[in-house]
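Practice problem: predict the structure.
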Amino acid sequence: MAVAGRTPAVARTRAELAEALGPRRSQGSLALVPTMGALHEGHASLVRVARGRAGDDGAVVVSIFVNPLQFGPGEDLDRYPRTFDADLEVCAREGVDVVFAPTVAEMYPGGVPTGEDSPAVTLDPGPLAGVLEGRTRPGHFRGVLTVVAKLFGLVRPDLAVFGEKDYQQLVLIRRMAEDLCLSGSVGPLEVVGAPTDREPDGLARSSRNRYLDEEQRLQATVLHRVLVAARRDAVYGLERALGAGRAELRAAQGVDLDYFEVRAPDLGELTDDAPPGTPARALIAARVGSTRLIDNTALTLGVPPTEGSS
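Answer:
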């Protein structure tokens, strides 16, 4: 196990990764935390979950790779923050064992797939990729699942930790792992969802928050207020939950809404006659200035919210 404060092994190639992981595979569970870098406290919380699940005898791998396949035309691929030295400090502080930081050419040796005519193999995420984030970002989840599948194949973890902030991504990765029968060293690969880490004012931590100026940062807190209002009024049913969130949006300034919906935990659609006790997920995406932010929260229709829900 790595010691907090000690620089983790850094692998840039598949061969270096295999060498770094070789002696660790027989020492306990192997946990993977995939990231695109620009690490913050939210990522650190994922690493702590991974360490807790892997145990003292296990190993934690953090991947740092800005995946071009999941960015659409006009999105922020070129300006996405790349802060490797600072990221390595975070990994050292949290006791990460191995950091895998490949180049684009290492992950896509045949070139990044550019469309249906590309000879490269990619993963079809299915119809769930066409709702919510997929409506606005066609092709996004094809890119996400393809790179995550590559990381699973290279690292071969027993468990992988993802944040619940990217909830649709989490649902799709869990479905991929189940449908494709992906395995760790001793059994099925476990995909772990970790709670969203938040700023004191409720804003979900995100690498993109650094794009916000002071006024936009204040405006962005409406995303959390919308979710809190929806969770509060979910006791009265689906339509009241949606109405409470929309009321918060009507009072907001500087926010361009993409979507605000309440769906089942598997992201299936719900109706207002859902019985009391039905679990649900409220999800929102909006632009504040030129920065697109997402957030979500769990709620239960017909039942008062519990303390500490996020």
